[in-house]
Design brief:
Neuraminidase, alpha+beta, Monooxygenase, 2 domains, 5-stranded antiparallel beta sheet
Length: about 375
């Protein structure tokens, strides 16, 4: 044993790192190595090494859109190849302060927007959870009349990271330098809610940044857009941010067609682009189809496709990976680049899942790793 330890000490650092890259069960193994001594902690915690282990943002799993129980727990289901490993995880293990009764709504870049139980009933309360560092930021209350029938389905919810709101930023721009992981990573955010005001019979834009103490409300930004009408529709959960502009899909029930909604994250100006007409009824959009934007381009539509023995339904997309369910209550991931499909083995059999019922999670696992490691040295 002493000879093996001496040999490990004598190895060059680059050789040690190459060995560590080949370890099985990488996150816990690297954590144990980092705890061995200060020198190994410096090796494992190096940004260039961590980026070789995990890209900046990866699809790690999903959670059902259900109320958390009195213990504040929620199933976090890992997908194949996730840094989470195998086995269901409790959401409270990432955000210990997450209140019971919270309902997950939407997530992006490690930020999770949840709706909280509120009192009085004429207001709605939200919070933004940072899954990287485990914080929960409770937002100022919002009038409930801006939320159509208290129903999440008829409103648009977007949570944006600080990088999303930078003009000229692009998710795929490899020339931009990566910030070093830290406990304050992604501490800034912006929440965007487009809610149907039942008093004015029109959509309103509500925005709130992490440094603000009250919501900003706008109605004039919808002039000459698909949302400037007394009709409701369905927003897709999936948002694409490209060069400071957020894009997502809106199904207008009045026109019976789909639009791409474009929001400038800095000026908050809104525009829409009408898509070619589709003969399918919009009233069944949630149950029969799911709209996905890829890289901000005009979206494509994947309907439920029948195979010989099963019916496939698209649940969403993250980081170039689709999440798909079938009529046998099984869930799969499909890589858009390779076309390969893998079954999510931790999803319980016999549990039916439909579009709009889960939140897909992406994380910067290098930041999670460094954050957890830092707590051991405080």
């Amino acid at each position: 044993m002493e000879d093996a330890a001496a040999m490990a000490v004598s190895l060059p650092d680059d050789v040690v790192l190459e060995i560590l890259l080949r370890l099985k069960d990488v996150p816990p193994a690297l954590f144990r190595c980092a705890m061995a001594c200060k020198h190994w902690r410096g090796l494992v915690g190096d940004l260039s090494f961590l980026r070789r282990c995990w890209p900046e943002n990866t699809f790690v799993g999903f959670i059902p859109k259900e109320r958390l129980d009195e213990k504040g727990t929620k199933e976090l289901v890992p997908v194949p190849g996730s840094a989470l490993g195998r086995g269901l995880r409790a959401l409270s293990s990432f955000v210990p302060a997450l209140p019971a009764g919270a309902v997950p709504i939407v997530s992006r870049h490690g930020l999770l927007l949840v709706r909280l139980d509120s009192d009085p009933v004429d207001v709605v309360q939200f919070a933004v959870c940072n899954l990287h560092v485990g914080t929960c930021h409770v937002l100022p209350p919002l009038s409930s009349r801006c939320i159509f029938n208290y129903d999440i389905e008829f409103n648009c919810y977007v949570v944006l990271s600080a990088a999303d709101c930078l003009s000229g930023h692009h998710d795929d721009d490899k020339l931009l330098p990566l910030p070093p992981p830290s406990r304050n990573h992604s501490s800034s955010f912006k929440v965007v809610i487009i809610g149907y005001n039942t008093h004015d019979l029109a959509y309103q834009l509500h925005t709130l940044s992490s440094h603000e103490t009250s919501w900003s409300v706008r109605t004039d930004c919808f002039e000459r857009t698909a949302l400037d009408c007394p009709a409701v529709g369905i927003f897709s959960d999936h948002v694409v941010v490209s060069r400071g502009t957020a894009h997502w899909v809106f199904g207008n029930w009045l026109d019976e067609c789909f639009y791409v909604v474009n929001l400038n994250t800095q000026t908050e100006d809104v525009s829409t682009t009408k898509l070619p007409s589709d003969p399918s009824p919009l009233s069944s959009a949630r149950s029969q189809q799911c709209l996905v934007l890829v890289d901000g381009e005009p979206p494509w539509l994947l309907r439920m496709k029948k195979t010989q023995k099963r019916q496939l339904c698209l649940l969403g997309e993250k980081c170039g990976t689709l999440l798909i369910s079938d009529s046998h209550e099984c869930v799969y991931t499909a890589d858009l680049e390779t076309g390969t499909m893998e079954r999510v083995v931790d999803w319980p059999l016999g549990r039916r899942i439909e579009p709009g019922e889960v939140v897909l999670l992406e994380m910067d696992w290098a930041v999670v790793f460094v954050s957890r490691l830092a707590t051991r040295y405080i």
